[in-house]
Amino acid sequence: MPVTDVQPDIDNLTLTIIADFAAPVERIWQVYADPRQLEKVWGPPTYPATVVEHDLTPGGRVTYVMTGPEGDKHAGYWLVTAVDEPTGFAFDDGFADEDFKPLSDLPVSRNTYRFDAHDGGTRATYVSTYETAEGLQQVLDMGVVEGATLSINQIDSLVA
């Protein structure tokens, strides 16, 4: 399994996930740069994503809908803040309604995804930072650790 470490840190308002892949940095970058590949790994297997809009450039926006096993739909968005192809990018990630308008009662996280060459493959470091401890706790209670781990672990078979 690619995910090797998960560290929620309430005091620092962060959730950090480390994953190691047997693929070069450029290949891991491509997973996020290509909306059709992103759909295969954004969301756990039982909640596949459909990427609606994909502009992975600073100031760009990515929108998606995850569909649950009962047909329930959950929309979200990224507001891309920085891109350093192929070694990473940063974005704000939030929950949205069906028109992709932000849901103000759910937290927004600031995310930094970094891809570094490591042991002949890639070490990915995913850091999500929340504005409040309550916001971080809310997503932890919603199962973000389990969901993110299942999602990230799908990358191995995609890049094999």
Task: Give the beta-strand count.
Answer: 8
The portion of residues assigned to helices is 10-25%
Class by alpha and beta content: alpha+beta
User: Can you identify the CATH class?
Assistant: Alpha Beta
Characterize the biggest β-sheet. 8 strands, antiparallel
**How many domains make up the coordinates?**
1
Using the coordinates shown, work out and report the CATH topology: Alpha-D-Glucose-1,6-Bisphosphate, Chain A, domain 4
Number of helices: 5
Q: Give the overall shape.
A: globular
CATH architecture: 2-Layer Sandwich
Mean pLDDT across all amino acids: 97
Low-confidence stretches: none
Family: Belongs to the AHA1 family.
Organism: Hamadaea flava
Pfam families: AHSA1
Domain Activator of Hsp90 ATPase homologue 1/2-like C-terminal: 22-159
